[in-house]
């Protein structure tokens, strides 16, 4: 007689692996789909940034819609150094700090918010350097931007009313306009990296590049595929064949 493998394999799912797979699979796939949507969104922002044109336009000619986002812009007026905003919980190169938002009164009479860049916090959660700026008339350049939006509210903003500079936690335009008791433009000027009186400025359209979102999507889908393979492997069992009686 020759040795013959008289076992068969069959798929017999156990309860616990099945419940875990049913719970985890939609989460992994959902995260992958979400990262793909972020990839598409960021790709659009990067394309808009690249196609925003080289010639700056006057601040008064800028609209608040997406057509002007990242557009080079120029403004003439003077800073209001006495009433500045510090947006808290801004991380740059692993350090916590603030974005410095300074009102800029245009010669035409309007009020514009200027993002002068990132500055580190000291041990007392104050700016590590002086944020004062001269209030003489000047011409500034930058790009049309927006205020940062919170992915997760970490707390720690909104200092005492009437205290300047005013520490804020992911404010919107109406909130800052109310604090200044004056209407402001519905967009923010991202001060050009080479401009004077700014801090660290590493402007990128949307923060994380689109390629990184695509990489994360691939990782989530790969984990979903690995989970499916593991589920099948752990639930395939050997089943001996019944004895035939002929030996």
Question: What can you see in these coordinates?
Answer:
Helix 1 (15-50) runs antiparallel to helix 3. The chain has helices at residues 15-50, 173-180, 210-235; strands spanning 7-11, 57-58, 72-79, 85-92, 95-106, 111-120, 138-145, 166-168, 188-191, 236-240. The chain is an alpha/beta fold and 247 residues long. It is 28% helix and 26% strand. The longest helix is centred in the first third of the chain and has 36 residues, at 15-50. The protein is built from three helices and ten strands. The strands form two sheets. The chain has a five-stranded mixed barrel. The chain has a two-stranded antiparallel ribbon with strand order 1-10.
Mean pLDDT, as a whole number?
Answer: 85
Helix count, per DSSP?
Answer: 3
What composes the largest sheet? 5 strands, mixed, barrel
C-alpha end-to-end distance: 8 Å
| Strand order within the widest beta sheet | 3-5-6-9-7
Strand portion:
25-35%
The beta-strand count equals 10
Q: What is the 3D shape?
A: elongated
Task: Sketch the topology as an H/E string, one letter per element.
Answer: EHEEEEEEEHEHE
What's the helical proportion of residues?
Answer: 25-40%
The whole-angstrom Rg is 28 Å
Structural class: alpha/beta
Q: What low-confidence regions span 5 or more consecutive residues with pLDDT below 50?
A: none
